[in-house]
Amino acid sequence: MSSDARIDLSRAVDRRMASAREWDSLVEQIRALDGFADFLRPPRLEALLPAAAHGPIAVVNLSHLRCDALVVDTGGVRVVELPGLTIETVVDRTLEYLVVLRNVDLAAHEVQATWQRYQDGDHAPAAIREYTGAKLAYQRAVDERDRTLDATLAWLWDEIAGPVLTAVGLVDPPVPGQPWPRLWWCPTGPLTLLPLHAAGHHDGTGRAVLDRVVSSYTPTLRALLEARRQLDPAPDDERMLIVAVPDAPDAVPLTDVVRERDLLTSVFADRHTLLEGGAANADAVLTEMSRHRWAHFCCHGGQDLTDPSRGGLLLRDRTLGIAEISARRHHGEFAFLSACMTATGGVVLPDEAITLAAALHYTGYRRVIGTLWSVYDDTAADVAATVYADLTATGRFEPERSADALHRAIRELRDVHRLPPSAWTPFTHTGP
Q1: What average pLDDT does this structure show over 210-229?
Q2: Which terminus of the chain is more exposed, N or C, with fewer CB under 10 A?
Q3: The CHAT domain covers which part of the protein (predicted)?
């Protein structure tokens, strides 16, 4: 090596060492700031335990070696072995579940397309046969979905939810008149796509999560801790942003959006901002989200399971994507996503929890109600009506009770209206 090369190498080493010292110094300065003691450090267990102050958190861990649930409470962490669970089975079940859901969506679009051709004047016998065939195919897809969902919910109970609830002592429904206990699910891997909150044998035997506990989700323990922080008082932003889009371009019209809009403008008569028609465009929605503590979106939602960051809300001008929403910080207390597939992540990196519900939660909305897959807009409107009636029963809006309100609304659909799991399973609650 020449002398010049040695000099250049020596200088490069000196620069690297100087940069390393500067990095260490900056990190130490940051860690000296209030609230940043763990900057770039793995979170300390004792710092995460307060996340379970209002109920246990079940982190369901998947591995090729073994699968367990880590139950976190304020006293520490317990391991609940799940010997019957394998990551291969979870993947197979998840794919089967996603396929039948997708088949229903495709069949519904075909029914809409064949009906539209008939409405446009094609009354030929072939067109009528196409429409009739599409309806039959749709019914077959619905039947297959319902069979698969029943089996999936029973399997989730037998292998995961049942053992977890037994381990935390939730072996019976609560005594009538007593507050319902809370539990947070923190699934990993493909389980992020499955409805743990609805696991069970829904046959009246009480072997179901809905019959024993109020469920919420959290993407991480740290996210739940952050969501428990009290918002600074700001009475001027205690308004409901209502985004109503019944007729997004190239989408099936949503007939019950008007019912949701009228409900919300009545409940929040002097405390709302309504964006509909041409005003419900992406730029306006982003602007108003920063000015409102509460938000309700009644519109189509979309999700690309292979690239979840491309999912979002279908507005009048374009899709307001997850990436755009995630790029901002919000001072939000509550968001209700009365739209399809707002809590569905991706199949490539499911642990990333890239969903619209998670994006709103991460960027500042403490509590988010979303959906795992396509829902009928009349059912979404019914759930919204029940939830808001509950949250305003005292004369003031109380989003801190949103998990309990959604739980009661779902149980009403199951027990009173006798609707199948496909109608009420999609609705989820994220946050405290």
Answers
A1: 91
A2: N
A3: 151-431
User: pTM of the predicted model, to two decimals?
Assistant: 0.84
How many Å apart are CA 26 and CA 77, to the nearest integer?
Answer: 34
Q: Could you tell me the pLDDT band of residue 7, with boundaries at 50, 70 and 90?
A: low
What stretch of H or E contains 214? strand 214-217
Above 70 in pLDDT, residue 14?
Answer: no
Euclidean distance between CA atoms 249 and 314, whole angstroms: 8
Q: Which residues contact 361 (CB under 8 A, 6 or more apart)?
A: 219, 223, 227, 368, 430, 431
* Buried-state track 68-87, b at ≥16 Cβ within 10 A, e below 16: bbbbbeeeeeeebebeebbb
pLDDT at 324: 80
| C-alpha 129 chain-centroid distance | 39
Residue 410 half-sphere exposure toward CB, CA atoms < 13 A: 27
Strand partners, 428: 370
For the chain, give every domain's residue range.
Answer: 87-221, 230-430
The pLDDT of residue 353 is above 90: no
Sheet holding 272-276, edge to edge: 76-81, 68-73, 57-61, 182-187, 214-217, 427-430, 367-371, 334-338, 294-298, 240-244, 272-276
d(CA 317, CA 278): 8
Comparison of pLDDT for 151 and 23, the residue scoring more: 151
Q: Are 380 and 428 within 8 A, CB to CB? A: no
Q: How confident is the model at residue 368 (pLDDT cuts 50, 70, 90)?
A: very high
Burial class (CB in 10 A: 0-12, 13-18, 19+), 48: middle
Q: Is residue 342 within 8 Å of residue 356, measured between CB atoms?
A: yes
Class of domain 230-430: alpha beta
pLDDT at residue 13, rounded to an integer = 64
**pLDDT at residue number 349:** 41
DSSP SS3 for 335: strand
Contacts of 383 (CB under 8 A, 6+ apart): 338, 406, 409, 410, 413, 424, 427
List C-alpha distances in Å: 89 to 84, 85, 159, 185, 209. 9, 7, 11, 20, 21
Side chain identity, residue 167: A
| Residue 23 buriedness (CB in 10 A; 0-12 / 13-18 / 19+) | exposed
